[in-house]
Amino acid sequence: MKLLVTGATGFLGSTLVPMLVEAGHEVRILARSATALKNVEVVRGDVRDAGSVTRALRDREGLYHLAGLVSRDPADARKMYELHVDGTRNLLTAAEKAGVKRIVLASSSGTIGVSQTRRVATEDDDYPIETVGRWPYYLSKIYEEKIALEAARRRLPVVILNPSLLLGPGDARLSSTQDIYRFLLGRIPAMPRGGISFVDVRDAARAFVAALNRGNVGERHLLGAANWEFSEFFGRLSRLARRSPPPLRLPSAVKVAAAHLMEGWAHRRGREPGLPAADVEMGEHWFFIDSSKAERLLSFSPRDPMETLAETISYVREQFLPREARA
User: Fold this and answer.
1) What is the pTM of this model?
2) Given pLDDT bands bounded at 50, 70 and 90, which one contains residue 326?
3) What DSSP state is assigned to residue 273?
4) pLDDT of residue 116
5) CA nearest 290: which of 224, 245, 243?
6) 234-240: long-range contacts at Cβ-Cβ below 8 A with a sequence spacing of 24 or more?
7) What are φ and ψ of residue 27, in 5° steps?
8) Which of 2, 50, 90, 283 is 20 to 30 A (C-alpha) from 319?
9) Given the DSSP bridges, would you call strands 158-163 and 41-44 parallel, antiparallel or unpaired?
10) Which pLDDT tens digit goes with each residue over 289-324?
């Protein structure tokens, strides 16, 4: 197919695009700057600009919408809303006019699978707005999904994929692997109470390739490889990286209050906090999901999560840690 991909230079996009090219698709990308991706046509523009979106969609049969901003900083709320909500509305409006035959939207498992108690979420669950309402990233992705589902009700062929935390090699911006980076530098002092779900970016990308022909239009599809308590997650990281796990065990209220105090202290001194308070708050929740729908419809088959962790550690150490901290 003749495809347009937004967000092609991000962690997921830079993994997905070579797979699409290898599968024989003609790939055009919408990008704000030059890119090192090979065998693709580049149209300069932004999803927030309706004109560049219309130009990029000319003669395209399929659309992958991956563009967005992964941030836990409340200061980025407006930018995330513009990208995830306004940008998606622009794209879907233009795609409908262009008669695009298939649209695959990258959302997040956090639009479904976030809970204050230990549970496993499925696609049938409602949006946990009361829980994620103070976290702009997840809230803006929920609004994005709502726009996509409304478009599907107008018969626009939108398939939504909801990967959990993306890990693996290749995250050049540390957009998803920031916690691994912090762990390797010893910047996570207290063990989080909740649990994490994650997936290898390469396995998620293969599910996205499959979604061009499979998956249910107007529905969500969760992608996760492992549901682990944070104690297990950091315990396994510790063994692989030969680093001690977070040493402190504190009540949730104490951890969150201390994180906000430290964040305020850092901001008053014109610095970024070593561990943002929002990250600590999220760590007190469970992000467990059930991926059986994607396994059934998209042949989603994740690799051993220990392989993913090992390769993530190696990549982050090699690319981002000072030489003396790599051992």
Assistant:
1) 0.95
2) low
3) -
4) 95
5) 224
6) 234/183, 234/188, 234/191, 236/306, 236/309, 237/180, 237/183, 237/309, 237/313, 240/306, 240/309, 240/310, 240/313
7) -110, 125
8) 283
9) unpaired
10) 999 999 999 999 999 999 999 999 999 999 999 876
Instruction: With cut-offs at 50, 70 and 90, classify the pLDDT of residue 36.
Output: confident
Helix H or strand E encompassing 319: helix 305-320
The owner of tokens 């995250």 is 171
Q: Is 81 left (phi over 0), alpha (psi -120 to 50) or beta?
A: alpha
C-alpha to C-alpha distance for 273 and 186, rounded to whole angstroms: 14
Question: CB–CB of 262/272 below 8 Å?
Answer: no
Q: Give dist(CA 257, CA 253) in Å, integer.
A: 6
Q: What six digits make up the tokens of 258? A: 């201390």
- Give the whole-angstrom CA distance, residue 166 versus residue 142: 18
Amino acid at 316: V
Displacement of CA 137 from its chain's centroid (Å): 10
Q: What's residue 208's pLDDT?
A: 98
Find out whether 183 and 129 touch, Cβ atoms under 8 Å. Answer: no
Name the pLDDT band for 33 (thresholds 50, 70, 90). Answer: confident
- Tell the burial category of 173 from Cβ atoms under 10 Å away from its Cβ (0-12, 13-18, 19+): exposed
Taking only the tens place, the pLDDT of each residue in 203-242 is 999 999 999 999 999 999 999 999 999 999 999 999 999 9
Interval 55-60 mean pLDDT? 96
Provide the sign of the torsion angle of the four alpha carbons 289, 227, 73, 63, taken in this order. Answer: negative
SS3 state at 136: helix
Q: How would you class 229 by CB atoms within 10 Å of its CB: exposed for 0-12, middle for 13-18, buried for 19 or more? A: middle
Q: 3-class SS at 49?
A: coil
CA distance 190 to 310: 22
pLDDT (0 to 100) of residue 72: 83
